[in-house]
Amino acid sequence: MNNKIVFSGIQPSGNLHIGNYIGAVRQWVKGQNDGLNIFCVVDMHAITVPQDPKTLAEKTREISAIILAAGIDPDKSLLFVQSHNPDHANLGWVLNCYLSMGQLNRMIQYKEKSDGKDFVSVGLFDYPALMAADILLYGTTEVPVGEDQKQHVELTRDAAQKFNSKYGQTFVMPAPVIPKEGGRVMSLVDPLKKMSKSDPNPNGAIGLLEDPKSARKKIMSAVTDSGSEVKYDWENKPGISNLLEILSQFSDVSVTELEKKFAGQNYGQFKTAVADEVEKFLIGFQKKYAEISGSGKLDNILKAGVQKAYQISHPKLLEAYKKVGFLGQ
Ligand code: TRP
Predict the structure, then answer these.
(1) Which of 116, 128, 210, 256 is most buried by a 10 A CB count?
(2) How far is ligand 1, taken at its centre, from the CA of residue 200, in Å?
(3) Is 150 a catalytic residue?
(4) What distance in Å separates the CA atoms of residue 255 and residue 245, rounded to the nearest whole number?
């Protein structure tokens, strides 16, 4: 038995795209046989910026069903919604009192997200304390995150350290795990930028729930490079390299094999093959998604998920409560 405990938090906002699938969701699915893997849809983090209530509720369901459709098995992994487990807010409050204004003020994401806004919520500033609670409640050893979240995991470690040195060993020190290069998907209109859900140009990204025909068009009109050879060369051919990466990920054929296969073929023929593969993937994925979201089982899966989560988180919360001097009941 492996003692690895992996915690991933996913915000229910924006549309997940094939870049998120290849770079993150697919890696989670591959890792779910190793240790305990926890997936939390962080709706409480989402409201740190304005949200439309109806959309937030829909997105929370949508992202949960996407995770399941991608292959996360609720019998092996934990999947639940953050606001269903009150322990997160409760430990978040305690950690608030052990983190300083100065520490939170150094968070780059806070600076970026608050820059130029008329209204900046206290929640946005305090976001990392809640994230620290998410992680520390479960004895998490690994947090798979993008570069942008690394600083928040470092802060989580600082909070754990502060609490542990004051009250004795309570929280496990988590480590951020940044996915290796490779499997990185770039924008279809600017292959020097990452595929992004906030890209103002809708042709840059392909949503997981997007019409497969529209996805096909986006691939066919993706920016390519000068020359005519299908070569994996990020420096000189970022557009083609990006498409090779996408094709390799969806077809499970190595990039080297693909280069051989498309030797002598032109960009048009190559793009058609990529478009076919992406279209096939989306059709299959969306079928599973429709089955899950139409099955009426989602709410029960989330309910069972939070029950299991609570069994782990609650003793940890009570341990922390006791250490700070709260009366047990
Ligand atoms: N802040 C993360 C993001 O925006 C989401 C998140 C919340 C998270 N809690 C977490 C990620 C705990 C990892 C672990 O992407």
Answers:
(1) 128
(2) 23
(3) no
(4) 7
| pTM attached to this predicted model | 0.93
Q: Is the shortest distance between the CB of 156 and ligand 1 below 6 Å?
A: no
Name which of 99, 97, 123, 92 is nearest 110 in CA terms: 123
134 lines ligand 1 (CB under 6 A): yes
Q: Round to whole Å and give the CA distance between 220 and 216.
A: 6
pLDDT exceeds cutoff 70 at 183: no
**Domain 5-182+296-324, CATH:** 3.40.50.620
- The predicted-structure confidence for 127-152, as pLDDT tens digits, reads as follows 999 999 999 999 999 999 888 899 99
- For the chain, the structural domain boundaries read 5-182+296-324, 202-290
* 113 is a catalytic site residue: yes
pLDDT of amino acid 146: 84
- Work out the angle at residue 195's Cα, subtended by the Cα atoms of residues 11 and 38, and round it to the nearest 5 degrees: 30
Selecting among 4, 59, 180, 194, the annotated active-site residue is 194
CATH of 202-290, one of 3.30.1360.120, 1.10.1370.30, 3.40.50.2000, 1.10.240.10: 1.10.240.10
Shortest CA distance to 12 belongs to which of 53, 49, 42? 42
